[in-house]
Specification:
The chain has about 210 residues and is of the alpha+beta class. It contains seven helices and six strands. The strands form two sheets. It has a four-stranded antiparallel β-sheet with strand order 4-5-3-6. A two-stranded antiparallel sheet has the order 1-2.
Length: about 210
């Protein structure tokens, strides 16, 4: 009974730590969700071990955890036009279940090591991204604007006025608006200036990348 209590507490601590990071960054699967996923995976793993004591296949429940948690992760993936969000949260949910399984099997050090690794990745990537704001890189920006070619020409002119070279542009029509996709190389700060400049145009309805 003491060992089960250790597993429950550790799964709550590890799942909660990863969940707090997600909730702090206002992501769909937060503290409570990650706690429940980790705790559930731990419980199912304990049950699979009990099943093996009575001649059952311990791998059946473990396999279903991997499949079942995929549905939860898929629910956090959202698509808005050409932009997809929630992939990191979905991957995190999948890994939290794996950590819960490790706790259930009594691999406490392994579970703690991977939980710490995930936190380092999540927090470290954000700092790395901030550094990349100063480095030029290829990116594509998407604009919804009034369906007039003169507006598209003005958009390109304003972008090039920031010493940005446009590498590629695609224009499609959607709901009586032009969807303009422009690929160029710029830094994060240059993107901020371009965004501010373009959104001052009354013909531009939205801008994202």
């Amino acid at each position: 009974m003491d060992e089960i209590l250790i597993k429950v507490v550790l799964s709550l601590i590890l799942g909660g730590a990863l969940g707090m990071e997600r909730q702090y960054h206002d992501k769909p699967a937060g503290y409570a969700t990650n706690c429940l996923i980790c705790l559930g995976a731990t419980l199912f793993t304990i049950l699979s071990q009990y099943m093996s004591e009575f001649g059952g296949d311990p791998g059946r429940i473990a396999a279903q955890i991997v499949t079942g948690v995929g549905f939860i992760g898929a629910g956090s993936i959202l698509r808005d036009g050409n932009k997809i969000s929630g992939l990191t949260t979905a991957a995190g949910v999948w890994l939290v279940a794996a950590i819960g399984m490790a706790v259930g099997y009594g691999e406490y050090i392994l579970a703690s090591l991977f939980a710490a690794s995930i936190l380092l990745i999540q927090l470290g990537v954000r700092k790395t991204i901030k550094l990349l704001e100063f480095v030029k890189h290829y990116d594509t920006i998407y604009l919804l604007c009034t369906p007039k070619w003169a507006v598209v020409e003005e958009i390109c002119r304003r972008i090039e006025s920031h010493n940005i070279s446009i590498l590629k542009q695609e224009i499609t029509k959607q709901d009586n608006l032009f969807v303009v996709a422009i690929t160029a190389t710029f830094t994060g700060r240059e993107f901020y200036k371009i965004t501010k400049d373009l959104l001052e145009m009354p013909e531009v309805k939205s801008l994202y990348k």
